[in-house]
Design goal:
This protein is of the alpha/beta class. The protein has two domains: 2-181 and 233-264, 3-Layer(aba) Sandwich (Rossmann fold); 200-231 and 267-334, Alpha-Beta Complex (UDP-galactose 4-epimerase, domain 1), CATH 3.90.25.10. The chain contains eleven helices and 13 strands. β1, α1 (11-22) and β2 form a beta-alpha-beta unit. The longest helix has 21 residues, at 93-113. The protein is globular and about 55 Å long. The two termini are 34 Å apart. Bound molecules: nicotinamide-adenine-dinucleotide and uridine-5'-diphosphate-4-deoxy-4-fluoro-alpha-D-galactose (UFG). Uridine-5'-diphosphate-4-deoxy-4-fluoro-alpha-D-galactose is lined by residues 84, 86, 124-126, 149-150, 179, 198-200, 203, 215-218, 229, 231, 272, 295, 298.
Length: 341
């Protein structure tokens, strides 16, 4: 079975491609490398001993996408490609709508031209917005996220719903990720942010490896147990296996039509202070930090109700917080400059 993976050279994409290859899927990666390196795919090939067809291209380039569909017998698209920096999306919102919404529409249009009906979308817990109480579950209404990035995810989820109403053959799964961290256990692939990391774990890892002096903990006065924000961190390999589970669910449920959303998280909230402690004890590296002012747009605490993925996809996050920390460090210490030579 041939799977087109857009954004497959990126952080979550590369781990998911590895999992798909290990489960005997044929994978075509389509990525413009705007936030990744083709080296990730080379390493995935080495780790799995399998081949991957890599095409450098932009999802907004419909002619190039058409060529890919012409030359392959694609059954399903897993769509990771997107710009993903929440803060940046507030400064260049049009670029975010252009890549993340218009780009997704381009992919869906070309799929339709070629009669490909199966779509797995990288959504986010951010679609629950501020309105919903934690833990988030899939029956809740889509909320109003505080950033253009979050709005992009809500818009695409709405587009998928409208498309499913208009097209009785369309089958989509929206996977709402919570906070993926960690790296493949080999330490060969992992998260390689460009510039100053926005996300917590890459920042912590760069402090540990000596690239940054100390961590700023954004806010110590939230109404949480220790005053710092709580999130549902899950291992990126568990998340990768969530994509496999979603693909197998689509394959098994032949009569399914429409869009189904699934939360992919552990169901546990962990604070920023607890992450720092867990990293220090898993790696024996000290992480100096300051408690800094709150970061605009951060919610105090959210985590998943992951029961639906558990019962319907037969998926559960199994890797521990300690494993997440060890694997983050393994990747970072082996690759202090990421994929750069
Ligand atoms: P990433 O930046 O590592 O991967 C995204 C990939 O898409 C990159 O390889 C990039 O080069 C590619 N890309 C971006 N725009 C493109 C375009 N116009 N055409 C072709 N390729 C393009 O990010 P990631 O963390 O792996 O995220 C993957 C997906 O998961 C994204 O849709 C993101 O919004 C979503 N997501 C991520 C998180 C997270 O915390 N990492 C949480 C929730 C949802
Ligand atoms: N944090 C710090 N210092 C840092 C970086 C982060 O204290 O240097 C804190 C944040 O304030 C937050 C927590 O660590 O409390 C986690 O922050 P991340 O940026 O790692 O993750 P977010 O929960 O803010 O964002 C994630 C995804 C987004 C998604 C969002 C909501 O990265 O894609 O969840 O679902 F939109």
């Amino acid at each position: 079975m041939q799977v087109l993976v857009t954004g497959g050279a990126g952080y979550i994409g590369s781990h998911s491609v590895l999992t798909l290859l290990e489960n005997d899927y044929e994978v075509i990666v389509y990525d413009n490398l705007c936030n990744s390196s083709a080296e990730s795919i080379e390493r995935v090939k080495r780790l799995t001993g399998k081949s991957v067809d890599f095409i450098e291209g932009d999802i907004r380039d419909k002619d190039k996408l058409r060529e890919v569909f012409e030359h392959h017998n694609i059954s399903v698209v897993i769509h990771f490609a997107a710009l993903k920096a929440v803060g940046e999306s507030t400064t260049i919102p049009l670029s975010y709508f252009q890549s993340n919404v218009h780009g997704t529409v381009c992919v869906l249009e070309v799929m339709k031209e070629f009669g490909v009906n199966n779509f797995i979308f990288s959504s986010s817990a951010t679609v629950y917005g501020e309105e919903n109480d934690v833990p988030y579950d899939e029956n809740m209404k889509l909320g109003t996220p505080s950033s253009p990035y979050g709005a992009n995810k809500v818009m695409v989820e709405r587009i998928l719903q409208d498309l499913a109403i208009s097209d009785p053959q369309f089958r989509a799964v929206s996977l709402r990720y919570f906070n993926p961290i960690g790296a493949h256990e080999s330490g060969e692939i992992g998260e390689d942010p460009s510039g100053i990391p926005n996300n917590l774990l890459p920042y912590v890892a760069q402090v540990a490896v000596g690239k940054r002096a100390k961590l700023n903990i954004f806010g110590g006065d939230y109404p949480t147990q220790d005053g710092s924000c709580e999130r549902d961190y899950l291992h990126v390999m568990d998340l990768a296996e969530g994509h496999l589970a979603a693909l197998e669910w689509l394959n098994k449920n032949e009569s399914f039509r429409g869009v189904e959303a699934f939360n992919l998280g552990t169901g546990n909230g962990v604070s920023v202070f607890a992450i720092v402690k867990a990293f220090e004890s898993a790696t024996s590296k000290a992480i100096p930090f300051d408690v800094a002012p709150r970061r605009s747009g951060d919610l105090p605490a959210f985590w998943a109700n992951a029961n639906k993925a558990n019962t319907q996809l037969n998926w559960q996050a199994t890797r521990s917080l300690t494993q997440m920390m060890k694997d983050t460090w393994h990747w970072q210490s082996n690759n202090p400059n990421g994929y750069a030579k």
